Amino acid sequence: MINLLREGFVMPLGPNTETSLDTPDTPDPLDEEELSALDAHWRAANYLAVGQIYLMANPLLTEPLAPEHVKPRLLGHWGTSPGLNLVHTHLNRVVKARNLDAICVWGPGHGGPAVVANSWLEGSYTETYPDITRDTAGMARLFRQFSFPGGIPSHVAPETPGSIHEGGELGYSLSHAYGAAFDNPGLLVACVIGDGEAETGPLAASWHSNKFLDPVRDGAVLPILHLNGYKIANPTVLARIPEPELDSLLRGYGHEPLHVTGDDPHTVHQTMARAMDEALDRIAAFQHAARTEGAAERPRWPVIVLRTPKGWTGPAEVDGLPVEGTWRAHQVPLPAVRENPDHLRQLERWLRSYRPEELFDEHGSPREQVLACVPDGAHRLGANPHTNGGLLLRDLPVPSLERFAVPVDKPGATAHEPTRVLGDLLAQVMADTGERRDFRLVGPDETASNRLQAVYEASGKAWEAQVLSTDEHLERGGRVMEILSEHTCQGWLEGYLLTGRHGLFSCYEAFVHIVDSMANQHIKWLRVARRLPWRRPIASLNYLLTSHVWRQDNNGFSHQDPGFVDHVLNKSPEVVRVYYPPDANTLLCVSDHVLRSRDYVNVVVAGKQPCFDWLDLDAARAHCARGAGIWDWAGTETDLGEPDVVLACAGDVPTLEVLAAASLLRSHLPDLAVRVVNVVDIARLLPMEEHPHGMPDSEYDALFTPDKPVVFAYHGYPWLIHRLAYRRANHPHLHVRGYKEEGTTTTPFDMVVRNDLDRYRLVMDVIDRVPGLAVRAAALRQRMVDVRYRHHDWIRAHGADLPEVAEWTWSQ
Amino acid sequence: MINLLREGFVMPLGPNTETSLDTPDTPDPLDEEELSALDAHWRAANYLAVGQIYLMANPLLTEPLAPEHVKPRLLGHWGTSPGLNLVHTHLNRVVKARNLDAICVWGPGHGGPAVVANSWLEGSYTETYPDITRDTAGMARLFRQFSFPGGIPSHVAPETPGSIHEGGELGYSLSHAYGAAFDNPGLLVACVIGDGEAETGPLAASWHSNKFLDPVRDGAVLPILHLNGYKIANPTVLARIPEPELDSLLRGYGHEPLHVTGDDPHTVHQTMARAMDEALDRIAAFQHAARTEGAAERPRWPVIVLRTPKGWTGPAEVDGLPVEGTWRAHQVPLPAVRENPDHLRQLERWLRSYRPEELFDEHGSPREQVLACVPDGAHRLGANPHTNGGLLLRDLPVPSLERFAVPVDKPGATAHEPTRVLGDLLAQVMADTGERRDFRLVGPDETASNRLQAVYEASGKAWEAQVLSTDEHLERGGRVMEILSEHTCQGWLEGYLLTGRHGLFSCYEAFVHIVDSMANQHIKWLRVARRLPWRRPIASLNYLLTSHVWRQDNNGFSHQDPGFVDHVLNKSPEVVRVYYPPDANTLLCVSDHVLRSRDYVNVVVAGKQPCFDWLDLDAARAHCARGAGIWDWAGTETDLGEPDVVLACAGDVPTLEVLAAASLLRSHLPDLAVRVVNVVDIARLLPMEEHPHGMPDSEYDALFTPDKPVVFAYHGYPWLIHRLAYRRANHPHLHVRGYKEEGTTTTPFDMVVRNDLDRYRLVMDVIDRVPGLAVRAAALRQRMVDVRYRHHDWIRAHGADLPEVAEWTWSQ
To answer: Domain coordinates of chain A in residue numbers?
Structure first.
């Protein structure tokens, strides 16, 4: 054991740390028997973690350890594992003693061996994977499969029973924990936060989630900040500031810290048990006060600060360098066990230091004492159904669309703000889930800006901090969640969905890039989870991206980025869906679909500005069901032959420009056969081998023709369409317009002109591409050029769009 | 004025807030004359901010305000502007009084009108834009251009003199401020942080930057947390927690807070002046102690908490609803001035409340009193050369590559870890800038993991927190920066580069997605700045992406994502460059180029694992200069005709697999003419009209042939290559292999097999695509199928790759 007091690892307690638990006059919470049992469980878990990293045979050391018992590739993260095992052991104790419904989010999920070890000990692993039996043979398979080709990954992952959190990319544990706790008033969500993860932005922001947790309607989150002092190769910030400063930080986050510090196992067991008891007593008291006495003050929820050595109980020194208690314990402390007899001996000594013969019987099964702290059935952390949320999921009551659809007698005669229309539907969903409380809307302070404020009629905005009389719609237990952190919004929603509930994330289109990497990780989670038969499908993660690139009148260039779609379309096609509803009714139909769907990440891009109503509800339903279709009322095809040109569009603004271009062509070149195709479901452009929604070539050719010019006006970066359609026969004739990073604070029409997506440019594109038109329509082309110049002068003089554009209305 | 004490806007001071500045016994720092002058400057700035939002004529209200004086589209953010103006006014005072070298990062950059107003007042705006004169005509143009087509954006932006920070996407102000302060010991960097921005993850993480700021070698950062209480539509968290809790939070971040609270301008002026003096006195004392007395304790740097109403001095009520001091003041408080006579009257009253006749003379120029607080020349915040970093930039001393290149007598005879070789070069750069201190290396705790640890010989890792004797390479004033926050790394580096220095960001490839949106914003900044003649070119932002998708042996699926390249290639081609050096010497050549370059975002993807050396330095230089070329020593072309097939590759692992496939083909089909093409600079595949590096069709055809099958093994998502090359004549014959989201914790070769990028699959692809081979090479194809099956069984049995793969060496 290293001496933690050496060199100030343990800071002197400051004036703020009166809640430190080391005061000598408190009686020990554990008697000898319980202490011994907890320590046995911890040792067993540590033994199993080391075994997973190193062994492929001789799991119980029934013979002397030999090189051939050791894996050829030593992978895994030992450093965090003993700490995770300690937390799991002590969670077991309180869950059992208090009969809790509890889960744990393991932020340092790199310590996969620890969480897997605990699941195997409690039996949930064998229930999930029957071939990994709780005996010597199963232990051998457990060891061998870890980080082994064909086996399990090195992190906590979808494959891990009891997990809702992949431990690979750091930063999201605490927001996942809060997401799990919302609307689960009976649930305790423990959350281990590593001091490395604590340095990330998303984690730092998510501490303030406690201002959004209602002690009446939500469960409790118990953060356990585990300071083992090091990241991969560096000390951590929070472990190297004075303890009073850390204490002040946590109080500033709104928590009451409980400090557990040490490196002597028995002492730490006692202190940790006392901290757990104290924390759970306080949580119970806060909940009781709020639920039965109507206490309105925001609780100062407890946080446990656990300061133990990295790689605790592992090799103190290797090759003359200190390992335990340093960053060198991060991954595999003894790296050359197969080749180096000293390392082999050290490994054997290390494994035997846990006294496996006391922990496992002659069949390799955990002995009774080891399992004494383990709770039963669904109380086990690896078997709680909240961590396999699909088990608890109920269908969302999406109301009939008829009540919300806008009437459309003829296309383009009226206009609505699509997201406002959707807001009415969402308000109804919010109202209809008022009792069930399994639907939440999240967004970074943009619900009203995105025109969804009708939802406030059904639920206010969650808010547990101070309220002033001028405030509107703030509500304890509100299910609309607004914090100016896309990361926290995303993390909350993921945690909420993974525990079997429903939701939607509304976000400015440009700023959803802030959560690119989180979306990545969630898609990867779903892709793996879908292939695990025991993981039940969960509700899809639905993005509503609005305030989009074409209508950033107020904000300009920094707010223009339609590339999130490009990003997610690189990911597993079985998970990703992207929709561009062109008007209010199509947005309703798409939303109805995505809200009912399972195991997808759905991206819906829709405008919040007034937009012509093109399709009535029936037509919208049919169009969205097809995902792409001909709008014959907008084109000028007159027979069953092929048109001269196809004008295609995806997105509300491109659809407007295409219809205006079609209208110009009808007026000026009435004999030109123009087909208008609108695409809602962008993955339909892909070959059917590449995406479940991809259309067969025959259907593609029927829509877009095999060889006629296609002028495609697209909402996003134009080359995405080429990337989707490059295998189609007609690809050489596909010409795409879209956003090409030309923007500033300007008018809506100036935006499309700057990016060559405007109606006049589209008419020119048609003239340039249809054989024979170049000469015949030269005068029309010149008029198009002229009006674009006129636009240029006009907006600089008047600060507004050309009257003929601003006042344009659709007519057939 | 609203009453801030109403409803507890001002919290009672708690026990921790002993540094609050409201104690009645302190004498006022401002005499009547100075107070009056500061208030005049503030009123003038406020007047100019309102004028920019509303007016297109009658700027000085020399006639009654009429609807036609008002802009047709009212855009802008008033709410934050008076607070920014207050800060600017008081910064002017202290900069002048103390003769400071100071800049300010304006986090609430939505308040563009405020910063522009101040620049105009101090004269730096007119110096930058001579047509915006400091008189009535110039004021009229100043007003009109704001958020007007052809004018300037609504946010603080590259167009704004004195800015290094776009105010659009929130979260990065404080890390930018620290980046600016590093290695600028004489500089004060003030940083206004809005309480909205303070909720974001990146901002929350960046508070801990003070553990990396050296009081000796770095400048000072003065954060000013501006609590105006509201975001777009919601209260902010930090404004609605009790002041003692906020105070505790800031102390936990390592700061000493100075609270300035109020809504009476004269009182706030006095308190703010006192806070500024106190803060600067403390900063000076800390610097003095560290620089001349060798004090080693980390300073508790001051932070000012400025709590004033949102939209302060604007309309208190509009249409019967409270506006000043609420979220309704966020954008345009009077929305219908042109149509609603009441609004028009209110606007006129509002504008006249600043008493413009006292502020501007009959020519529209600011009066002497208004300018009394304004410093001179480069001391003005809008004219400090640090904010136009190219003015201060010196060429980086990149040493001769000969000293670092690895000897290559023949291709593939030796192997090196490319990033380790680069590490030696970077160490030399670090050493050679030891005096100049204008080069930093940033990374999220991965410098050593990425094999760049040689740099520690020249500079340690910046660290101002506690140091233990077991620590290595920690150093006060070190120029290697490691914190487990990609956001903070990126923000630091951006701030450092924008103030005229050099740097490199080394990052795990998958996790650079964490800063997707920051990269977006920096690329947008550069794209705009490049078009402003007065902005001098700055050093490029260089990413070294390593620990890449193909070699995540230890971590698996969550660590596999090569999509950052797809993301940045959507952005402005004049800014973005992407390189895939295939070995150590090409990495040196590419690094040499990017380190010397200006105004780019360079993405370099390179491996850290041992990799065959293919090219000696001369060949590497020639190859990198071309960006793509034929490796004739690897192919089997024998004459000047066209080959039967082209095997193309980009990336180190694909290059290895292509060379192995070429080797198999040479052995088994010796008469097949195989050409091997390696691509380093991926943008070369684009048409020359689409990217400055794009190659003409003639060159493309010469490399890839116009019509022969091309089997392209690519490092990333395969469709990116199609997106780049779809316009080429040979595109129908282009077949791309790449990463397709198939991965887990497994061996390197299993990764390429899972994604069909392995040598055997590539041979099959050749056989399937070269006419006539299907029959002739059927047996070879079957052998390829068989070996892939054998691989499958072997790794599951042995946990390691097939011996013939693991031991494969290149031979011609």
So the answer is: 6-14+33-384, 401-611, 627-806
